[in-house]
Amino acid sequence: MAQRFEGDGWGMQGPEGWDMASEEGAVMYTSEDGGCLQMQGHRKKDGEVNDDDLDEVAADHLEAGAPVRDVRLGDFVGFEVDYDAGELSCREWFLRSGGVLLFGTLVRPVERRGAEDETVEQALISLRVAAEGKGGAVDEGKAAASGGSSSGGSSSGRSPQGSGPRGGGPRARRR
After folding, report:
1. CA neighbours closer than 13 Å in the CB half-sphere of residue 89
2. Cβ(22)–Cβ(139) under 8 Å?
3. I need a surface site. Which of 68, 102, 122, 166 has the fewest CB within 10 A?
4. Domain ranges of the chain
5. pLDDT in tens, 107-149
6. Would you say domain 4-145 falls under CATH 3.40.1000.10?
7. pTM (two decimals)
8. Percent of the chain with pLDDT over 70
9. Contact, 49 vs 76, CB < 8 A?
C-alpha cells in the first residue's frame, strides 16, 4: 500500500510500492528501480502564493530558458520543468495553492527516463490542501477508519499538456 504524507498545509499519497522517509515539511519516496521523488512545502506568512512567487523560486530554470509546462496536480497549480543533468533525468514541479508553495523533484538514471512517470503522476494528482498543524506520515488504516480519504477534494487531476492555470500555451518568461 502507498504511504500517505501530511505536511504543513498539504498532503499526498506516495507512489504505490515506493519507500517513504520524511522530516518536517518534506517527504522523499524511493523506488527499487532508482527513482527518487521529493516534495517540500512552505507556507507563506501573509497572503496567498502567486505566480510571481513560483517564478522567483524557479528563477534559475526560467533564466536558463528551460522548457516549462503548466500543470494542475490535485489541488495545486503551477509548472514543471524536465531536463537531463549528466547521468540523471530530472523533473521539477513548482506548485501553489492558497498560502502553500510546493517544490518537487523526481530524479532517476537517464536510461530510466519516463519509466516511472505514470506512477509518479498518479501520486502527484493526490496532492491536497490540508488543515493547518498537520505533519508527518499517516497510517492509511487509521485514516480510512476515521473517514480520511486519499482522493478527497477535487478530482481535477492534471491538466492536458499545453493548457494550465494561465489559460494555455507555453509559460511566458517575465524577466
Report:
1. 12
2. no
3. 166
4. 4-145
5. 999 999 989 999 999 999 999 998 654 444 444 433 333 333 3
6. yes
7. 0.77
8. 74
9. no
Instruction: Dig out the grid coordinates for 10 from the structure.
Output: 498539504
CA separation (Å) from 2 to 61, 88, 139?
31, 25, 10
Q: Using one digit for the tens of pLDDT, what is the confidence trace for 38-90? A: 999 999 999 999 999 999 999 998 888 888 999 999 999 999 999 999 999 99
**Cell 490542501 sits at which residue?**
129
Q: Is the pLDDT of residue 28 over 80?
A: yes
Task: Say how far apart CA 146 and CA 156 lie, in whole Å.
Answer: 24
CB under 8 Å, gap of 24 or more: what pairs does 66-71 form? 67/170, 68/170, 68/171, 69/161, 69/162, 69/164, 69/170, 69/171, 70/159, 70/162, 70/163, 70/164, 70/165, 70/166, 70/168, 70/171, 71/95, 71/158, 71/159, 71/164
Amino acid letter, residue 156: S
